[in-house]
Amino acid sequence: MTTSFYSIEELKKLGINFNLSSPDSLSTIQISRKASLYSCSDITVSDHVRIDDFCILSGKINIGHNVHISAYSSLFAGSAGIEIRDYVSISSRCAIYGKSDDYSGAYMTNPTIPDEYKNVISQKVIFEMFTLVGSGCTILPGVTIHEGTSVGCMSLINKDLDAWGIYVGIPCHRIRDRKKDILRYVTQYESKYRNRSVRH
Predict the structure, then answer these.
(1) CATH number for the domain whose boundaries are 8-194
(2) Average model confidence (pLDDT) for the chain?
């Protein structure tokens, strides 16, 4: 029976790489058939991952355990890469860039132009554990969102964000600390469902 998600056999044929807690956990990977996946051999997915309809994944992307990427979000990693660690949530319509053209006017831009006329900025983006970005956020090259931080919808993230904060705005700024209660819950979850230690 055909479902809305790729089968594991189909993902293997596409060339997706897997980082699994156990061989049985392959069944916990859900990637929508309506997602667009490019350079699949550069994409690594762990277990308990869900990627929804109309997402775009392109370039070197490493996705940890228990990650949700919601509908219409786009990850343009390039060769620098996007690293998404465990327990990360990316809400709908987010745009994440591991590379970008130089928009200063000093160079030409867009994919139709040869590289010799462009200045492509290429820097790794990292989502540390327990991070969350709200709907419609834009994340620029070189940003690290440190552990436990959440970002409100429609925010622009153009620099590193410190751990366990709540950020909003264009560009985003810290408005208060974020609670750490989730650490207690994740310990319970790990022992009950995952049988592995929480990795920090």
Answers:
(1) 2.160.10.10
(2) 94
